[in-house]
Amino acid sequence: MRISTDRGELDVAMIHRYLSEQSYWKRGVALETVRKGIDNALCFGGYVDGQQVAFARVITDCTDFAYLRDVFVLPACQGRGYGKQLVAAVLNDERLRDVAWMLGTDDAHGLYAGFGFAPLAAPHKYMRREVRGKLSK
């Protein structure tokens, strides 16, 4: 799998289709929301035979902090190690080598643990503010 951070190569329609129809974390997300997220993040596309089959988005200042978001491999291409390749490429990107990482997942703890991610040591120190309703079409 070839991995690129060139936004011009991204298949935005496919990314939106997957996130809005197949993901558990962004089901129903509007196309404009996906575009805005891509425009304001460091994005990684995974390509096989010229077709995009994987995606990851990193929200970061490239100095102190990075949040890994919207990681997926299309169902037809899962089980081939593409997810591991994609996450490895993200974590090894020169712009992101010295940042602290965070992510959220319901079902891929094993994948991310293999890259050194662990539950928060002091979750009582962290807070979250969630804005409701922004995923509407």
Structural class: alpha+beta
Order of helices and strands: EHHEEEHEH
* Sheet of most strands: 5 strands, mixed
The low-confidence parts are none
Rounded to an integer in angstroms, the radius of gyration calculated over CA atoms is: 15 Å
* Number of helical stretches of at least 4 residues: 4
Strand order in the sheet with the most strands: 1-2-3-4-5
Q: Which word captures the global form? A: globular
- Number-wise, the strands total 5
Share of helical residues: 25-40%
Rounded mean pLDDT is 93
Could you tell me how far the N terminus lies from the C terminus, measured between alpha carbons in angstroms? Answer: 32 Å
Strand fraction band? 15-25%
Give the helices and strands, then pairings.
Layout: E1 2-4, H1 12-21, H2 31-39, E2 42-48, E3 51-60, E4 65-73, H3 82-92, E5 100-103, H4 109-113
Parallel strand pairs: 4-5
Antiparallel strand pairs: 1-2, 2-3, 3-4
Describe this structure in words.
This protein has 137 residues and is of the alpha+beta class. The chain has helices at residues 12-21, 31-39, 82-92, 109-113, and strands at 2-4, 42-48, 51-60, 65-73, 100-103. It has a five-stranded mixed sheet, with helices on both faces. The model has no long low-confidence stretch (mean pLDDT 93).
Features:
single chain; 26% helix; five-stranded mixed beta sheet; 24% strand
